[in-house]
Amino acid sequence: MQRIVFLPDDREEEAGVDETILEVAQRTNIPLINVCTGNSRCSTCRVQIVEGMEHVSPRSGSEQDIAEQMAFAGDIRLACQTKISGNVKVRRLVLDEEDIDVTSLLIQEAGANLSGVEKEVLILVADIRDFTSFSETLLPYDIVHILNRYFYLMNEVVIRHGGKIDNYMGDGFIALFEVKDKREDTLRGIRAAIEMLGVVETRIQPYAGKFFDRRFRIGIGLHYGLVVAGTIGGRGNKRQTIIGDAVNFASRIESTNRKLGTHFLISEDVYSLVKNDVRINRTHTIGIRGKKGLHSLYEVVGSA
After folding, report:
1. What is the CATH number of domain 117-303?
2. Which of 63, 138, 161, 217 is 20 to 30 Å from 11 by CA-CA measure?
3. What whole-number distance in Å separates Cα of residue 105 and Cα of residue 186?
């Protein structure tokens, strides 16, 4: 049976015929990080083949794509995609003090999702329109007061529809909705956004107009996609959050409201799930900053 020597651990382990290097490491408790859980969607399980390159399987298509994107040399391989046919020696590329510390934390706090998991969620991004000009003549207390009033009411709406605010970003926030039944759970996000707009119009705008003589409006973007959910931060300052292209795309959709003069836009991925359950005013096929090609966005004005 072929064997793998892992560095810097200086451990030698047996490898089955159909096992990847990552599978051998996981079976033998060698702390080889893999954020995407071995699905060839990241580069965190990369190793250097120190000896025995002739015994290493060719790169898969997905590994080759990542290797080209990251400009890997030929001896840098993704452990989740690599099998061996003879003895090899590999080096885990987690050698500095910070990476070693992260690895030890992953062992000590198993179950805390420190390494991250992939999941599909509905992402709602909301932002106050022109908040800089809205707040520039207000006292600091008034700015914090109106923001807290807004966030309090929005949080009530999000929770009522089964979502959770994940992160506040100045005058905006990201809310997440778990997706088990795609149609029904997506509709919960749609209804939450529609109610949010109604609460702003009937409760926040009159308040802002009466006490601050300002117009208060928001924009909302909704997208369904794959994210990495995990714990980030340093010691004593860690929190659960999500990252990924789907999050960025949801934010881009929200900001496109300014360009189009709309209040609530959804992506093609969302629309395809609920097209018979929502009322659409216009469909916009436009370029999105940071995304290639044209994308269809749908202006939602109510439930069907």
Report:
1. 3.30.70.1230
2. 63
3. 35
